[in-house]
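Item description
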Amino acid sequence: MRENRAPRRDAAANREALLDAARVLLNREPNASLEAIAAEAGLTRRTIYGHFPNRDALLDALAQRGSERVVAAMDGIDETDPIRRLALIAVRAWDEIAGVRTMAITTVRGPRAEIVDAALTPLRVRIAAALEEGAAAGRLRDDIPAALLARLVEDAALSVFAASVREGLSDAASRRLAASLALTAAGLGWRDAAALIDGDPELVAAPDRVDPLWPATQAIDLVPAEEAVKLDAEAAGHGTADDALDAEVSR
């Protein structure tokens, strides 16, 4: 019987490159084809179909990986105060998803909601634990079971993504709002939530972006069209930025 072997290193790298490209391109063009995503990754049509037989398979994988990244972003949160821990969870989630907020909205609310829901279970467990500790200390509400309240807190924070796109909120304002809504849903007064957030540098200031895809996904709103083309090219690795810009202008 043939043993299951790990994928070849280049195959695994190609798969990640395709998912990275999809994360960028679908945030900008939700209906982008598999061929366009392959081109964004600098790979062939044959390669993308070798990893993802159809668009649904790619979107499923993207939803799974994106959710796992949100959960992984919570690593290192060892805050003992349950209220500050909730705020940190909210801003860490925002920092992970903010660059692809448009795509995140359709993923969370769309046909892949079950994939996201299951993958975010560890995050919900963290939230519920903080809620239970806060309720036991008399600092957070205890009239709703922690598991249910964790979902309501999650929903409150996720609602910020849609609002940020609809209202054109800045990254800083959206990040603060995500933390504030999570805390108030948990039972903290809005004034107390504001005082906690505004008095804590880690909650107020977003960290420097280390995600190489961040500039490309933000280019839509923050830089002129010509600069967006340059950033997209640099993120996808398609030659030089100037070459990509020349190609775009000549279309």
Summary: Confidence is low (pLDDT under 50) at residues 209-251.
